[in-house]
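Q: How would the structure tokens look for this protein?
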Amino acid sequence: MQAIVFLAGLLGLAAYGYYAGRGRALSVAGPRRSDTALHSLPSYYGAYVVLWCGLPILIIGFVWLVAGGWIAEQAALASLPGALTDVDPGRLQLTLNEIRNVAAGSLFGEPSPEVRAGADIYATVKGIGGWAVIAGALVIGAACAALAQRHIRPGLRARNAVERAVMIAMMVSSGIAVLTTVGIVLSLLFESMRFFAQVPITEFLFGLHWSPQTALRADQAGSSGSFGAVPIFVGTLLITFIAMLVAVPIGLLAAVYMSEYATPRIRAVAKPVLEVLAGIPTVVYGFFAALTVAPFFRNAGESVGLSVSSESALAAGVVMGIMIIPFVSSLSDDVMNAVPQSLRDGSYALGATKSETIKQVIFPAALPGIVGAILLAISRAIGETMIVVMAAGLAANLTANPFEAVTTVTVQIVTLLVGDQEFDSAKTLAAFALGLVLFIVTLILNVIALRVVRAYREKYD
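A: Here is the predicted structure in token form.
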């Protein structure tokens, strides 16, 4: 409710400020309300007022969004007895989580009276503080809008101010994107270093047995796991290879047909229908693989004397390849259509046939884009999880046989982080090490693709 009121008030003030600033600019322009008497267009003066009233509201709202929860938590902790606060940080965090859950009404069971009282204070501070912040922000925004409106005059460089604000917003957005990427990399790196402090990196990269189950207590059986990730890497490469064997030929042939052979009417129907495959949820593909494709391969293998597992890399790879066909076909089709018609006409003028033109002119010219499409498809295949879980299983088998059950890096990451986990055990930290390896592999693929693109792009520039 508070968020809706906040956004409604912000949008209402912004709309009022825009029309008030625009009207003020026209009124100070002179009796004939001519735009030539103003330094900027009237719309820029409206945007100028919007900036003055919107920025303070957004800043106040952001500060409360960041600090409001902490303030409510401190108020709730101050109401608790010392027996609940004078504990280790982990136990105190659990108490805070319980207070937040009670305040949100999502706690199962009956909380203690102390936690109930703390939750009441937490909810009160969040509620009253939120409404107070909304009211104060809107009042300050309205005052800033009135002040900005009074400063509007014909010589005010409103366009410069608005464009400068837009440029700063774009710079901030770019910085957030870069910092997010850096944060992801650093989080993977630091947590992976904690993992490698417990498990040697050589065992992780070259070990042949993966069994990350570890005991919670030292007196339990199986207190140490095996973290050799080679079976996981092999399984990922095997399923990705099978998927690309399906997606690349079918996708490229479909792209060639739609780009060079299909009539405009057929292309207008075939391309959207093919792209529907990319919009189907992966869980649907998983059901299709587990209930249809995997039994089909098992029965077909039995008919010719082959032993095919109920969960196999072949079933997962084939269905995954079907899923990523649009990534190859659609992007390759767009790239082929972008090849200048003059290249085709020149090839035909020299006596080349359509197939020769496709092989010797269009394919080389469009190769950078095709490589990018294939790289995107590979990245999509490496990152797929649901199809592998439902069709290939969770067994970390070191095998190149597509008829056996295997697992992938992403599936193991999900498996390791499911449920309540302690982020100081090797089992949980192994997920970050797997993520780091996956990131490095993807980065290497990007570098290779960029080199291929540069090499062939220079040839046709």
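The first helix runs from residue 2 to 28.

The mean pLDDT is 82.

Upvote if useful.
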